[in-house]
Amino acid sequence: MTLLFYSKVDDPDDWRAALQAIDPGLEVRIWPAVGDPAEIETALVWRPETGMLAGLPNLTLIQSLGAGIDHLLRATGLPAGVPMARLVEPALTSQMVEYVVLAALHHHRRIEAYRDFQARAEWHLLPPADTEATRIGVMGVGVIGAKVAHALRGFGFQVAGWSRTPSALDGIESFHGADGLAPFLARSDIVACLLPLTPETEGILDKDAFAALPSDAYVINAARGGHLNEEDLVAALDSGHLSGAWLDVCREEPLPATSALWHHPKVILTPHIAGVVLPRTSSAQVIENIALVRASRPPLNLVDPARGY
Ligand code: NDP
Ligand code: OXD
């Protein structure tokens, strides 16, 4: 059994060691050392390049090295009919929950303002943050968004979720579909995007969405840069309508040095690290998927390419 590994951001040696610790018989080849293409049965990839997987005649599984699969669905030259799976993994989900809670609380407790006071050696008190009066909206209440919504509800925030179909999460108000978006945004003092990137969700955080948010709203995007119209965000920040934004992802990664986001005083940026798959916790799922496909069964977390997530 031979697996081909490709990622520019994950350490291939760590992955090889973790995979072989579970299945010592698994041969792991690191791109571009493909060897005989006919021997490759599994591709474990993050953002494969055009045509990279096209010449693998016996490929039986394309396994995403992450929860998102937009990087696969947008890659051209993927072999047709090969099942694609994404990673759904508690450790990754927990990182995402930590990240969004961190961003929301950092804003809610006005840490940026207190840092400014500290820089000026000023002992200055702002009005207290009222958690129960603060409304947070979570866009996408799937595996990750649902956990984020519950974690925020646990602090006492008023939390709502927006999804494609109605959700029924305890204590979380549900909005859904195109018609539900404007009322959902209108009641969100803080909005956190945890949607998959699909043709329907691309550019969804744009000037219309920002106009629908209450004045002073705060935007967190921990999903994909393609959700956000960066020019519209900067305009909404500069006009004073939005109070700030916390972004883990950008339309182009790495973010170009010329981007206005780098030095914008109301933006906090991280380099797509909200949730990072760990070989230690994710390898077992990859090995299990290889075994399932070998047994002619569907892999765990099979992606529906037609739905786009
Ligand atoms: P899921 O597939 O479990 O959940 C997706 C959610 O989005 C569902 O609630 C779904 O609605 C909703 N949704 C999809 N399309 C639409 C639409 N057109 N309108 C409204 N709602 C929609 O995904 P995960 O929770 O596992 O992951 C979400 C995303 O987070 C990933 O796709 C990835 O891009 C991103 N991510 C980012 C990371 C980072 O480090 N920054 C790390 C991990 C993930 P419904 O419930 O009705 O199906
Ligand atoms: C993912 C990611 O989708 O890392 O897992 O962004």
Summarize the structure.
With 309 residues, the protein is an alpha/beta fold.
Structural class: alpha/beta
Q: How much helix, percentage-wise, in residues?
A: 25-40%
CATH class of the largest domain: Alpha Beta
Tally of separate helices: 9
Assign the CATH superfamily of the largest domain: NAD(P)-binding Rossmann-like Domain
Strand content: 15-25%
Report on this structure.
The chain has 309 residues and is of the alpha/beta class. The protein folds into 2 domains: 2-89 and 277-294, Rossmann fold (3-Layer(aba) Sandwich); 92-269, 3-Layer(aba) Sandwich (Rossmann fold). Helix content is 31%, strand content 17%. It has 9 helices and 12 strands. It has helices at residues 12-22, 70-73, 90-108, 111-119, 143-155, 177-186, 207-212, 230-238, 279-294, and strands spanning 2-6, 27-30, 40-45, 61-64, 84-85, 135-139, 158-163, 173-176, 190-193, 217-221, 242-247, 267-269. The strands form 2 sheets. It has a 7-stranded parallel sheet with strand order 8-7-6-9-10-11-12, sandwiched between helices. A 5-stranded parallel sheet has the order 2-1-3-4-5, covered by helices on one side. The radius of gyration is 21 Å and the shape is elongated. It starts with a strand and ends in a 15-residue tail after the last helix. The model has no long low-confidence stretch (mean pLDDT 97). It binds NADPH dihydro-nicotinamide-adenine-dinucleotide phosphate and oxalic acid (OXD). The site of oxalic acid has 5 residues, from loops.
